[in-house]
Batch of 2 targets.
Target 1
Amino acid sequence: MKKLTLVLLLISLFAQAQEKVNFTEKFKKENQGKYKVEVNEVKELLQIMIAITKTGLENEDMMQQEGPYYQSVLKQFKAYENEPIIHTFDSLLVETLINNVFLTGNGISYDFKGDKLVKSDVYIFPAGGVNGVKVVENPITQYKKELEDFAKKSNFRSFYKKHKKYYAEIIAQYEKEANVGKQWKWLEQNFDTRINAYTIYCSPLINGLNYTSEFNNNNFRLIYMSLPPLSNNSYMSAIENELFNTRVMFTEIDHNYVAKPTKEHKAQIDEAFKDRKYWVNEAVEGIDAYTSPRYIFDEYMTYAVYLLYCKHHYKEADFQKAFTATVGVMKDRGFTKMKEFTDKLLTVCAENPEKKIEYLYPDFLSKL
């Protein structure tokens, strides 16, 4: 199977479209201090359509291709793989896998009303730019008729309704096991950034292509994440599964806290990370997506802060499991100095327990 070749720069997702949301006073009141998990209907339609493209069928890292849900998707929808709109989506994915984000990320800008798609009052054009790549028109608007026709022809809405119980189980598992509130509280104790609400959009078809965004409108900041269901791997212990799921979620959330001080210390980061070959393995596929010292540093910092969280919340033996697993994952992704980076951050934090993490940047960077 073809492997996922795109490593998204999560800190910059949707940066050019933050203003294209509409957080009314009613919306703010209903969502303040809350997080929700949703398997969004239109977004799931996009996930399914991408899953049956040639690119989706060949890319097991991008699409979750194991389990009964995927088989049910193939059973009902693969017969439509030669529809013109599916070929159009495939051509977009061949051009760049970032188009997966533009398609699924803008799914929340519409809702179904019968067989028709109607515009959301909240999300106008939520996914307009990723890492310097931009689209000038919301693709859901652009392909609205084709999406409506595909959904009707394939009987998508009945499929979605049939699986609502399964979607509810995914949501319930998140609410029971994800510890979003705990992570949120810890991050706001250790950074100055304040977030008003979180939304997790989940799909059983998501595998390795996760992304996050921050929307800031009408004095209200909302973090939006696109994530797979929580994992429950039989070959892992309960604590190992918890650590894995925490890492997946935490390293999406904390991008939104790490980004501000990273931007503020760009000059020092550029100097510390000027020797790119020291910090990354250029031979690893996907590492070229991290185009600047700031992006490389930010990825290291995102995972190192996750390990700080583990240090504060887990027994030493479990922290060491998280540490070893994270160093291994980062090495596989091309970030070869994760151990050294984290060791120095842990030392600086231990020396300055009264300081928030973002105020440790100058001291920490001077030691790299």
Target 2
Amino acid sequence: MAAKDELGRAGEDRAVAYLEASGYRIIDRNWRCPQGEVDIVAVRGATLAVVEVKTRRSLAFGHPLEAIDARKAQRLWRLAAAWIAVHPEQARGKRLRLDAIAIVGAEPATAALEHVEDAL
């Protein structure tokens, strides 16, 4: 696995641990369809959160959330709708929300984590 992929996977693992500690139940990870991939799908109460995780070792190339531009946000909405179409029973009665988690630091397990709810 490439170093970039390992960093991303470690960041997603950290995001999952954070979400679980915050009362979310993780119901899917790295779900793929022809349009792309959803990093994390989580539920807390009546909210279904589709979560995009961005991990960086430093801010040298900008904040991780800057990578989520308008085009990427539209794509994430389409992916969320595709996930719901395949999993309607898990989405029934839930409010859909797109969140973003940014992780910045040399070691993802201890790096700074920022969770932005309703980010997109």
